[in-house]
Structure formats: structure tokens, C-alpha cells
Specification:
With 474 residues, the protein is an alpha+beta fold. The protein is 29% helix and 24% strand. Helix 6 packs parallel to helix 11.
């Protein structure tokens, strides 16, 4: 079997819905399924090759178009294994356990920790270290267009969640001996700028694919009496009646020597969706299977020297890839993972710049956050001023009117002249003597120095209102 390793860079946002339904809350996938790359090649070659070649290329599984996972620094990311657990209210970086390697699940200390299963996210595993890959998502609201009236259609609003522009994904295409002759033809169809996902005719879906030699974990032989099978891709199995099943046998996983699956040690998650067939304009049969990241523990019946790389159905579309005995599922005698989980890998600068420049929603949220932070700072400063200095302003007849005058100055004065106007008011005229007592003018001046021009007016108005209220009743 030969392999082409490729990198897919998003030149625009990409929409890949988890389900083909057109109504309701639509979430996008956090990876790119292999059938997108199969579609790119099929659109270029299907009408050019004969029927037998088309079967080998696109239908029999002789050519396997793998899923593209979010990746960084030359390492292909993998879905977090479902057999990894960590204590509740803590982080994986603090403590991580491999469920099927814990010697005593009923131990008192483990029950007190309340172990929680890892379920989401992609991680790059290398040299006994796992780093989370941050998958950046964008959200936009779009409207259908009314051509007759040349405006947006009524009641036709859509929300789109998408993978962010600038993200990097790694994937591979595998060829067996029968399909090896098509290798260069398939590679030439994939490399370059292509379009995938939904809304390709609008602003979404443009990617660039290039050959790239990345690193990823491989299957490892073991001397123990069990094999750990990690689901790199989604797995779909059919029973003897051709019906999808969530309970495969060890034979379905590629073992044919009387092996058995230890279900009590395995960690399985499932999925279900109905694929849309564009050629026939209808939905195909529901696909029910085992989700990425699931872990099977298979009890061996004797020595095993060869391990499967693909199992199950629809291998031509990216389903079925597995890794046996991966190093990141090893643990010490207490069940603690030997793989050290570290902090999240930051997305590339290209991703951050794309999100910064293209998201009006993000700009709006940043402004709202800045306004909320300023409001919180003003309220805190005013409360501190009142609690610390109210005694210096009490007992003075009609001093509340001074705060009313300062509030009036703040309401009508420009922000760049506000501080000067207030200091001039408390330093001259009949009010100057009141402000000099107990160093009130210095206290107010210190408050004014705490704010720049942008927030000074709001701060003075709030302070004057609070102090006027307390001084009136003192």
C-alpha cells in the first residue's frame, strides 16, 4: 500500500454541516470528511475513465480518501480518545487516566475524584506529549435574495457556522496494489485551489491543497494479551443482514483467530446521519456507526503480529481507519497516562488575522466588552470613593449643590476640556474655600487622574450623582 500525504489550507471559511437537514440549529464539523476529496477527483475523472476504472477509483475502496484533521507544526491531529479521563473540576493538564488500564475503578480516591470522560477536541500526539489543536469557528447570518424586488427575502434568514479561514488540515490518500497505477492522476486532480463544503457559489469553500509530509502515530506491536484499537476515522459496520450495527465483533475489527472484544473496558461513542445524494436528489440510507476517538479493547487468543489499518464499510470516503496500540494510550501501574497533556496550541497568525478582519460580530463583541469593562471600572471607582471619602464631605451645609454643579459641568463640557473646567471651578469663586477644607480638592483631583478622556465624563457624572445623593441626606 502506498500513500500520498497532503495539506489542506482554508483560503476562505468552509461550511461542513454535521447533518444535511436545512432547518434547525446547524453545527459544522470540526474536520473535513474524506468524501469531499473523493468528490474533487470524481468531478475531474469520472466522465473520462471507463466503468471499471471508475469502480476502482471511487467505489470499491481500493483508493481511500482519508479525513482531514486540524493539525499544527507538521503533526496530524487526532480526536481525543474516549478512554481518557480526568478528575472533575480539574484539567487534563493536571491529571489524566486511561480508563481500561486503571487497576481498581472502585478505589476510594478515584471515586472522590469523580473521573470525567474526554469527548471533544483534536490533539497532536508526539513523544509522550499531547497538545490540543484549537479549531477556530466563525458564525454569520445570511439572507436569501429576492431577485424580483431586488432585496432580501422575508422570513428567509440563515445562520452559518464555519471553519475559519487560514486553518490547516492534514490528510492522506491510500492506494493498494490494484489502484497504484492511478496515484499520479489522483494527486494531480487534488493539488491546487479547490472548493468544498456548502455555499461554494458564495463566499465559502475555497481551499488550497498541496503535498506535505506530516507525522502521525502508527500501530505498535504489543506483548500483552490484549490489543487496543483506536478509531482514527468514523467506523461503520454491517451485520449479516446488511443492517448497520453499533456492536461489531472482533472479526469486524480485523481479528480472525477467536479474539473477543472486552466491552466493559471499551469506550464507544456513536453517530447517525442521512447523506444527501446529489445525483439522485434524495437522501440515502441512514449511516449509523462508531464515532472518531472510540477505543476497543480486544482480548487476544494467542500471538498477533499483524494489525488492520482499515476496517468496516465506506473506506473510500474516509471511514474505517484505525490505529492499534497507539503510544498515547499507555499508562503506568496506577492507570495514569504516560502522555503528558499540555496547553492548547494557538491557531496560526493567518487564522487570527482572518477572524479579526472578517468578523463584524467579533468587532461588535470586542466593543461591547470594552464598554462593559469601563462601566465596571467606573462603578468600582465611584463606590470606593464614596466609602472612603464620604466622611470628608458630610456635615457641610448645602454641599450637595456643589456636586450638582460639577455634574452640570460634566454634562455640557467636552471631554478634552472637562478636567480643566472642574479644577477651575473648585479653585476659584465662593466654592473654593469649601473645597480646600479637608483637602477635598486634592481628593477629587486624584479621582480625575484615574481616568483618560474616553471615560472621564461617565465617571464624573456617576460620582456627582452618588455623592449628591449622600450629601443631601447627611
Amino acid at each position: 500500500m502506498s500513500t500520498i500525504k497532503l495539506k489542506c489550507t482554508l483560503l476562505t471559511d468552509v461550511i461542513l454541516n454535521q447533518k444535511s437537514a436545512t432547518e434547525g440549529n446547524r453545527k459544522t464539523l470540526d474536520f473535513i470528511p474524506g468524501n469531499n476529496f473523493l468528490g474533487i477527483v470524481a468531478s475531474a475523472l469520472y466522465d473520462e475513465v471507463d466503468r471499471q476504472d471508475a469502480l476502482i477509483l471511487f467505489h470499491t475502496g481500493d483508493v481511500k480518501f482519508g479525513d482531514a484533521h486540524p493539525s499544527v507544526e507538521g503533526i496530524r491531529g487526532l480526536k481525543i480518545p474516549a478512554s481518557m479521563y480526568y478528575p472533575k473540576l480539574k484539567k487534563m493538564t493536571d491529571e489524566c487516566y486511561i480508563h481500561h488500564l486503571i487497576p481498581n475503578l472502585d478505589a476510594v480516591d478515584l471515586k472522590n475524584k469523580q473521573l470525567k470522560q474526554c469527548r471533544s477536541g483534536f490533539y497532536c500526539f508526539s513523544r509522550n506529549e499531547g497538545r490540543e489543536v484549537q479549531t477556530v469557528m466563525n458564525f454569520a447570518i445570511k439572507s436569501a435574495y429576492d431577485k424580483a424586488n431586488r432585496r432580501s427575502k422575508d422570513e428567509m434568514m440563515y445562520g452559518y457556522e464555519s471553519l475559519a479561514k487560514g486553518s490547516t488540515f492534514y490528510f492522506e490518500v491510500d492506494f493498494n496494489d490494484k489502484s497504484e497505477t492511478y496515484r499520479e492522476k489522483v494527486k494531480s486532480c487534488l493539488i491546487g485551489k479547490k472548493r468544498i463544503g456548502r455555499s461554494r457559489s458564495a463566499q465559502y469553500g475555497l481551499v488550497e491543497i498541496e503535498e506535505f509530509n506530516f507525522i502521525q502515530p502508527e500501530s505498535v506491536e504489543t506483548n500483552v494479551d490484549y490489543v487496543t484499537v483506536y478509531a482514527d476515522g468514523r467506523l461503520i459496520f454491517l451485520d449479516e443482514f446488511g443492517v448497520p450495527t453499533f456492536r461489531p465483533s472482533a472479526k469486524d475489527l480485523g481479528f480472525s483467530n477467536g479474539e473477543e472484544i472486552c466491552w466493559e473496558k471499551s469506550q464507544i461513542r456513536t453517530f447517525q446521519y442521512a447523506p444527501w445524494n446529489f445525483k439522485r436528489q434524495t437522501y440515502d440510507m441512514d449511516r449509523c456507526g462508531i464515532e472518531k476517538g472510540s477505543v476497543f479493547v480486544v482480548k487476544l487468543n494467542g500471538a498477533c503480529t499483524s494489525y488492520p489499518k482499515y476496517v468496516g464499510c465506506y473506506q473510500n470516503e474516509g471511514f474505517g481507519k484505525v490505529i492499534c496500540n497507539p503510544s498515547f494510550l499507555e499508562a503506568d501501574k496506577d492507570g495514569k497516562s504516560v502522555c503528558k497533556m499540555s496547553e492548547t496550541c494557538s491557531p496560526s497568525t493567518n487564522v487570527l488575522n482572518a477572524v479579526e478582519n472578517n468578523s463584524l460580530l467579533l468587532k461588535y463583541l470586542k466593543k461591547k466588552k470594552a464598554d462593559d469593562d469601563l462601566r465596571h471600572r467606573i462603578y468600582s471607582a465611584v463606590n470606593d470613593f464614596v466609602s472612603s471619602n464620604l466622611k470628608n464631605f458630610k456635615g457641610e451645609e448645602r454641599f450637595a449643590s456643589q456636586w450638582g454643579a460639577i455634574r452640570g459641568i460634566a454634562m455640557r463640557c467636552e471631554e478634552n476640556r472637562l478636567k480643566e473646567a472642574i479644577l477651575d471651578y473648585i479653585s476659584h469663586g465662593v466654592a473654593s474655600e469649601k473645597w480646600e477644607k479637608k483637602r477635598r480638592n486634592e481628593i477629587l483631583k486624584c479621582f480625575l487622574n484615574c481616568f483618560s478622556e474616553a471615560g472621564l465624563k461617565k465617571a464624573v457624572i456617576n460620582l456627582a450623582a452618588e455623592m449628591g445623593k449622600f450629601c443631601k441626606w447627611s
